[in-house]
Design goal:
A hairpin with a 5-residue loop joins strand 2 and strand 3. The two termini are 25 Å apart. A three-stranded antiparallel β-sheet has the order 1-3-2, with no helix packed on it. It has a two-stranded antiparallel sheet with strand order 4-5. By secondary structure, the chain is mainly alpha-helical. Helix 2 crosses helix 6 and helix 3 runs antiparallel to helix 6. The protein contains six helices and five strands. Helix content is 57%, strand content 8%.
């Protein structure tokens, strides 16, 4: 399943010729009408090599947990920060007040605000999806051992919820409109808003660190229960 960001009005127009009945439309949007779920993504996926049986759910979860831990502690790669370092650099960037002087270079600052908002959206979306997926995997564990996975899912959801609430406050209090990739929003154009976002990211990082530790514990439990 591929989760994508699009404008519902665009797809309504695209489908009008093929399907007049809204109940029969292929594209299903969420309540906010900005995201859709599509299980018929129009791209060709090729597989090379011998066909193998799909891995067991426990194997997929174990690999995902290892990837979480490795990516959280990964260093800078090709100019991009990852995991914990990415949070730290994001926070540092928001602390550089001279980089947000609209009077000095409005275009550059607006691009910076665009990128910041886009990153917030992507972080919220990925953590919301992670929370849902982790909850789906809770039955893989014994009932008395499910608490850590439930906690990790709750942490992911908490990050997504805090970002959603923060962006709503920004849209209500900021006067600096931004627009990118069809998104119309407002940027963290004031020192107060950037300080609030720094607190948000610091909180999110603490939950990410907890989830990294939880991932190690859950992996050990799965490793004992399943031979992959």
């Amino acid at each position: 399943m591929c989760r994508t960001y699009f404008d519902r009005a665009v797809f309504d127009a695209l489908e009008q010729e093929d399907c007049q009945d809204p109940e029969e439309r292929r594209m299903v949007f969420e309540d906010d009408e900005r995201y859709l779920f599509s299980d018929n993504w129009p791209f060709l996926i090729l597989h090379f090599g011998e066909k193998e049986e799909p891995p067991l759910p426990a194997a997929i979860l174990k690999t995902s947990l290892v990837t979480l831990i490795q990516s959280f502690h990964a260093g800078k790669c090709r100019g991009y920060y990852q995991g914990k370092e990415a949070y730290e650099e994001w926070i540092r960037g928001l602390s550089e007040e001279e980089d947000f002087c609209l009077e000095r270079d409005r275009d550059k600052v607006l691009r910076r605000l665009d990128v910041n908002d886009s990153m917030l959206c992507q972080l919220a979306d990925s953590r919301r999806a992670a929370a849902s997926w982790l909850r789906e995997n809770i039955p893989l564990l014994q009932e008395e051992e499910r608490g850590d996975l439930e906690r990790a899912a709750d942490n992911c959801q908490a990050i997504a919820d805090r970002i959603h609430a923060f962006r709503n406050r920004v849209n209500d209090s900021s006067t600096c409109a931004i627009a990118y990739n069809g998104v119309n929003a407002f940027g963290v154009s004031t020192r107060e808003l950037r300080r609030e976002q720094i607190r948000l990211l610091t909180y999110a990082l603490s939950l990410e660190e907890e989830n990294c530790a939880l991932a190690g514990k859950i992996f050990e439990i799965l490793d004992k229960q399943y031979t992959v």
